[in-house]
Each structure stands twice: as structure tokens, then as C-alpha cells.
Design a protein that fits this description.
heterodimer; A: 179 residues; alpha/beta; Beta Polymerase, domain 2; 5-stranded mixed β-sheet; two-stranded parallel sheet; 4 helices; B: 398 residues; alpha+beta; Cytochrome-c3 Hydrogenase, chain B; 2 domains; 3-stranded antiparallel β-sheet; 17 helices; 48% helix
Chain lengths: 179, 398
């Protein structure tokens, strides 16, 4: 099975969303990706909150429901963090994904809680597991892990063996498991 | 509000730790309640007691191995979890599943929806003091689990739905087993309703409790029966049909009251609708036909072929040692679980192991509305509100 990047032509919905955002701010759409029938709109980091507001308020879009927010760590490539918001328009029966790229040096972005209060726990989860800071988030605390946990486990460079409080156990484990 | 002298100074309210070991929190949920007498002033849910890092574990498994992990998230809906993950990987691969397998999937997840609602109804009723309903509900749930055991060999962690199809062909005699259940179940649902729907205590404990407006519900990303009880008819089976749901005839029950009682009515109505879907699915499933897609290198070959064909043996070996590699990209699929929109996001970097698997857990997202439901209500209403939010902590914490 050959591995190839599949390029698809943008769907009608992709054109509608991209056009709406572009007519509001020409810089709002960095890229439109269509893959397996899903539309991804890549938005510049500083325009995320305004673009999200646009998606919710615009009568042609009506993305009133925030379905999901998650992150992918593309370590070691840079920018490494890919932040994805999945939006649903209940009246139009359409979905779209808003994407922002964040670099390792400054993984921070405007929180979307002012736009969708439902983003609260979803962003806390991303903060907890990836260490992305959401500026303007009302309650940015760890949610799944204990408050005193060190590191962000879903990052790709987080050690997956050894014990945190005993130094170098990862090294010992590797030595003992090789005969 | 009266001021009370406490050991650390004067206080007007008291803080009560509800959970994590509290039977009415349905698992290990802890809620910090600030109380003024019996009224809840503030509520802060605290979770993570059941966090097992399933999403991280997925990154170190091949695509097929992840299925067994999905069973263990929402343990009242393992088939639904299997389904959403398999649909996401199939979308990533661009794989078409045979119609017969799609209908069997629909039948299984609808039976699962009924069984999940039965556990919900039973435990919710027992929380509010109706012991007998619990026993009746578990009696019928047992029948569904027997059907699952018949199909998959397991009662709960079935892993029956696999990438590209199903694990096994339906067993001999499955049709009569499902028929028997379909005959028995409608009268059982009537039975629960005679016990509860007009019960004065039940109405007193649930009517007008835990109101959330439809606008707030959408803004808070609430989905599932909770959203439909607020009058928003959003159901993934209708809005974004998957697994041939567009061929089935069923209604999406909604209510407008948006209180605990309305959520109860919506879920009971959903059980009846699910029975309709199961009936149609049974009629659609043919006795003969493929249950897996044709995709060498992705779907394990048949046993017989492995013994006679060289390629089949090689594929079998490669699938179970190395796995298969979808093209780089992402896929997000959402299905309607008994609790709401269950989403699965899979990202591939072209290697045999997923780069990222994320589950949009409906319990997790719905639970964040809990403070909104209970602030200003009585402490006894907290129990009713947690109950009708229908959380499964295995899914909340993952």
C-alpha cells in the first residue's frame, strides 16, 4: 500500500466558510485542507478567537456548537503543536475544523471560552496533557492529572518508561531488559 | 444567612466533599459543594481519579490493537466505542464496509443503547429511592448481555466491531434470540413507566429540577438526551448519518421542559425508538454475506485461505506483527452514543501506529454543565442532576 498525501478539491462547505472568513479579514484563512471529506481551515494564531466568533455569529455559517478541541504534537517538526477545534452547525448540518499551529517556544493561544463556554474543560484537558496555555481562560488548572504533576504526558518527548521520582530508572530498565 | 463560629473563624457556608467514594456519583467523581444550609451555593467537580492515559497508550499500539482499549472507556457502551474508533480508522483508510456488516453494527449499538439506558434508569431510580426499578432494569439488561455473549463471546468488553467489519459471523440461532428480546422488551418498558412516570415521589424529585436553557445547553456543548430534553433535536444518527442509519426509520424524541423529568422521558422514548431500529436491522440482515471489507494487508484473511494461499499467510503475519499504515492525515468521526456525541479523532503520520487518538467523550463534556444545573438547588437535587447527566467515569477520565 503506497503512502501518499491525498489532495481533494474543497467541498462546497469549505468554500462557504473560507469565503465568509476571507470577506471579513483577508488574512483570516492561511490554508484550506480537504481530506476524506473533512474541511480544515488553518487560521493564524492571533486571529483564532475573532475567526471563531465569526464562525458562530455569521448567519451563513451558524457554527453554534463546539464539538471538540484537541491537540496533536508533531515533535520533532516545528511548529510542533497542531490545535484543532471541531465545530458543528446544527441548522446547516455541517462540520468544520479550525486549526492553529503553535511553536515549541511559545505554546499559547487565545482561549475560546468567551466564544463557547463549553470550551472550558476541553481546553483544560489540552493544557493538562500538552501544556498549551490559553490566554483569557477563566480557570486554567490541571483537570485529569494531580495538581503537582510534572510535565505534559501527551507530548511526544515525554518519557514513557521509568519512574518520575527515582532518577535514571529509565536507563536501568533498558539495561536490565536487555540480556 | 446565619453566621456560625467555627474553629478557623466565622463562616456563613460550609464546604462538603461529595465523593469520590459516593454511590450516587456513579463512579469516582468528587464534587466540592459549598452549602448554605441545604442550598448549593457553588459546586466544583474534581475528576481524574480514573485517569488511565488511554489516549497515550493508543500511540504505542497498532491500529487494530487500540480496539480493546476503547471497550474500557465507556464501559456501558463498549460497542459504540468500538464503532466510533473503527469508523474513524476506516475513514482514514478510505475503506468501505459491506452493508451486511453495517446493519449488524447498527443492531448491536442499538441493543447497547437500550442496555445503557437500562443501567442509567436503574441506578438513577435507586439513587432517588425506587429500588424495584433497578431490579427490573437489570433483569432485562441481562438478556441483552446474553445476546452479546452469543455474538462475541463476551458480555461487556466485546471488541466485536473491528476495522473493516466485524470479528465474527453472527452465531446460529441469533435471530430467534433477538426476536425473543424484541417481543419481551416493549412490555417491560411499559412496566418501568407504570412504576415511575406518574409516581408522585418520582415527579416530586425530578420535575423542574436541573433546568438548563436550550441556548445555554448548546453554548456549553451539551449533546445527547440532555440536549434533546431541552428541545434541540440534534442527533448524529440523523444529522450526520453513519453506518447506513439513513436507511432506518425512527424518530428523535425531544421535550421542551429541560428538567430531570424531561430527560427521563426522552431516554425512555429512545429505548422504544431503538427497539424499532433493531427490528428493522434484523429484517435487513441477510443470512449469507460478507462481514468484512475486501482489503488485503488491512483486514486479516480467512483461516481457510491462510492454509492454502501463500499471500494470505504473509498478510496475516504482517498484519499481526507490523500492522498497516494509513496515509498521513486526520479523520474525525462522531456517533450518537447513549450519552451524546461520541467523537473519535485519529491522526496518522504514515506509520503503523497512530500519531494521536483522541476521544470526544460526551460524559466529560456534559459533566461540565453540572455546576450550572445544581447551583441554587437543594443538596438532594444534586443526586437527581448527576443521575440525569448520565456520566460514566471511565469515559470522563479515560
Amino acid at each position: 500500500m503506497g503512502l501518499k498525501i491525498v489532495t481533494e478539491s474543497p467541498s462546497q462547505n469549505a468554500n462557504v466558510v473560507a469565503e465568509c472568513l476571507r470577506s471579513w479579514n483577508p488574512k483570516a484563512v492561511a490554508e484550506v485542507i480537504e481530506f476524506r471529506g473533512e474541511t480544515t481551515i488553518v487560521v493564524p494564531r492571533e486571529l483564532l478567537r475573532a475567526a471563531a466568533e465569526r464562525c458562530r455569529e455569521d448567519a451563513k455559517l451558524q457554527y453554534s456548537l463546539l464539538s471538540d478541541a484537541t491537540c496533536v504534537d508533531r515533535y520533532p517538526s516545528e511548529p510542533r503543536f497542531e490545535l484543532d477545534y471541531h465545530l458543528v452547525s446544527i441548522p446547516r448540518r455541517e462540520r468544520v475544523r479550525l486549526r492553529v499551529w503553535l511553536s515549541d517556544g511559545d505554546p499559547a493561544v487565545d482561549s475560546l471560552v468567551p466564544v463557547w463556554p463549553g470550551a472550558n474543560w476541553l481546553e483544560r484537558e489540552v493544557f493538562d496533557l500538552f501544556g498549551i496555555r490559553f490566554t483569557g481562560h477563566p480557570d486554567l488548572r490541571r483537570i485529569l492529572l494531580p495538581d503537582d504533576w510534572e510535565g505534559y504526558p501527551l507530548r511526544r518527548d515525554y518519557p514513557v518508561e521509568g519512574f518520575r521520582d527515582v532518577p535514571n530508572t529509565g536507563e536501568l530498565f533498558r539495561k536490565s531488559s536487555t540480556p | 444567612m446565619t453566621t456560625v463560629e467555627t474553629a478557623i473563624g466565622t463562616a456563613k457556608t460550609m464546604v462538603l466533599n461529595m465523593g469520590p467514594q459516593h454511590p450516587a456519583t456513579h463512579g469516582v467523581l468528587r464534587i466540592l459543594l459549598e452549602l448554605d444550609g441545604e442550598t448549593v451555593v457553588k459546586a466544583i467537580p474534581d475528576l481524574g481519579y480514573l485517569h488511565t492515559g488511554i489516549e497515550k497508550s493508543c500511540e504505542d499500539k497498532t491500529y487494530s490493537q487500540v480496539i480493546t482499549l476503547t471497550d474500557r472507556m465507556d464501559y456501558l457502551n463498549p460497542l459504540g466505542n468500538n464503532l466510533v474508533y473503527c469508523l474513524a480508522v476506516e475513514k482514514l483508510l478510505g475503506l468501505e464496509v459491506p452493508k451486511r456488516a453495517q446493519y449488524i453494527r447498527v443492531m448491536m449499538v442499538e441493543l447497547q443503547r437500550i442496555s445503557s439506558h437500562l443501567v442509567w434508569l436503574g441506578t438513577h431510580a435507586i439513587d432517588l429511592g425506587a429500588m424495584s426499578v433497578f431490579l427490573y432494569c437489570f433483569r432485562e439488561r441481562e438478556e441483552i448481555l446474553k445476546i452479546f455473549e452469543m455474538f462475541a463471546g463476551q458480555r461487556m468488553m466485546t471488541s466485536y466491531i473491528r476495522i473493516g467489519g466485524l470479528a465474527l459471523d453472527p452465531p446460529a440461532g441469533w435471530r430467534s434470540a433477538v426476536d425473543r428480546f424484541l417481543k419481551m422488551m416493549p412490555s417491560s418498558v411499559d412496566e418501568y413507566e407504570t412504576l415511575l412516570t406518574e409516581n408522585r415521589i418520582w415527579i416530586g424529585r425530578t420535575k423542574g429540577i436541573g433546568y438548563v436553557s436550550p441556548e445555554d445547553a448548546v453554548a456549553l456543548s451539551i449533546t445527547g438526551p440532555m440536549l434533546r430534553a431541552a428541545g434541540v433535536a440534534y442527533d448524529n444518527r440523523k444529522a450526520f448519518p453513519y453506518s447506513s442509519y439513513e436507511e432506518f426509520n425512527f424518530d428523535v424524541p425531544t421535550r421542551r421542559e429541560s428538567d430531570c423529568y424531561a430527560r427521563y422521558l426522552v431516554r425512555v422514548a429512545e429505548m422504544r425508538e431503538s427497539l424499532k431500529i433493531v427490528r428493522q436491522a434484523v429484517d435487513k440482515i441477510t443470512d449469507e454475506g460478507p462481514i468484512k471489507a475486501e482489503a488485503p494487508g488491512i483486514i486479516p484473511p480467512q483461516r481457510e485461505k491462510m492454509k492454502t494461499e501463500m499471500e494470505a499467510l504473509i498478510y496475516h503475519f504482517k498484519i499481526f506483527t507490523e500492522g498497516f499504515s494509513p496515509a498521513p492525515g486526520e479523520a474525525f468521526v462522531a456517533v450518537e452514543s447513549p450519552r451524546g456525541e461520541l467523537g473519535c479523532f485519529v491522526a496518522s503520520d504514515g506509520s503503523p501506529k497512530p500519531l494521536r487518538v483522541h476521544f470526544r467523550a460526551p460524559s466529560y463534556v456534559n459533566l461540565q454543565a453540572l455546576p450550572k444545573l445544581i447551583e441554587g438547588q437543594l443538596i438532594s437535587d444534586v443526586i437527581a442532576c448527576i443521575g440525569t447527566t448520565d456520566i460514566v467515569l471511565g469515559e470522563v477520565d479515560r
